[in-house]
Amino acid sequence: MATAADRSSERVPHAAFSAVPPVPASAVRAQDVAGDNARDASFLEPFERVFATLKRMTSNYATLAVLDLQRTAVQLAWLVAGGIFIAVLVVTAWLAAVIALAVWLFGQGMSWPAVLLIAGALNLVGAALVGLRLRNVFEHMPFEATLRQIKSHEEKRD
Question: Is residue 97 within 8 Å of residue 123, measured between CB atoms?
Fold first, then answer.
């Protein structure tokens, strides 16, 4: 009976773990001769494969970037169109409210010049409120954090 030490020294053929049937020895020799000729003929083949792979990867990334840019452009167009539509509706509602107030004031016996003055003042107050809100929106410079990061890296180099 073989001991564990005897069994460990015996090598199990690699083909025992493979589902591929073994190749006859004559075919292996023919492949070796053809392989030697191919290796001699194409020393640059690995570099060519790497270059082709990089070219395919670059093409795939460029295609992905173009498709993503197209999708982003369509989304931006919908966003701008929706913003314009919403703005038109809001302005229409604002004008309707101002006109309703003007008609109500005129119906209460106020003169037309006074009604128009109040409507104009109401529009100016609305514009001032929107202007104050926009001032708060642009409190920080565009790309302020990016510029701060770039300046901090430049200071670290010095």
Answer: no
Measured between alpha carbons, how far is 114 from 86 in angstroms, rounded to an integer? Answer: 31
What's the DSSP call for residue 139? S
Residue type, 149: Q
Using CA atoms, how far apart are residues 152 and 146, in angstroms rounded to an integer? 10
20's tokens: 């591929």
Give, for all 158 residues of the chain, the pLDDT tens digit. 555 555 555 565 555 555 555 556 665 565 555 555 555 557 788 888 899 999 999 999 889 989 999 999 999 999 999 999 999 999 999 999 999 999 999 999 999 999 999 999 999 999 999 888 888 777 777 777 777 878 877 777 76
Rg (CA), the chain: 39
Give the pTM.
0.49
| DSSP letter assigned to residue 14 | G
For the chain, the maximum distance between any two Cα atoms, rounded to a whole number of angstroms, is 122
Q: What is residue 11's three-state secondary structure?
A: coil
* Coil, helix or strand at residue 48: helix
Tell me which amino acid residue 113 is: P
